[in-house]
Fold this protein.
Amino acid sequence: MLGPIIQSLDFQSQALKLRAARQQVLAGNIVNADTPGYRAVDFDFAAALGRQASTAAGAGAALATERAGGVNLAPVPTQPGHIGGPAAAVGTHITWRTPGQAAIDSNTVDLDLERAQFAENAIRYEATLRFVSNDVKTLQAAMQSGGNG
């Protein structure tokens, strides 16, 4: 009964972590806009979220197999620091951003692009927070009603 709600909260939690990580990456680009030789970096949010969702699905499948009395010997990351966990997924897929036009000092940060990406990511982070808030409010309302209506 709570499975879909928990899965939704887990998914949104992973999305928030990735949005926060991307915000840090974009902020690093903005801070280094005047650093000679700095190369702008970014990561594909959708691909990273897909990897984390598949990792979470693998963890859920392992739990279901265990509950059914079976044995699943595949390693499942349970903490962000584990090999193949969320931190590794973000860290290994950060790529250099292709510059539109590099500066004379070889800096590839396009400040206008970085600011736009930063603002868009912030808006999406806020939207994800609203989804989580609505899920929690729905769960609270369901618990308070006690299933009476």
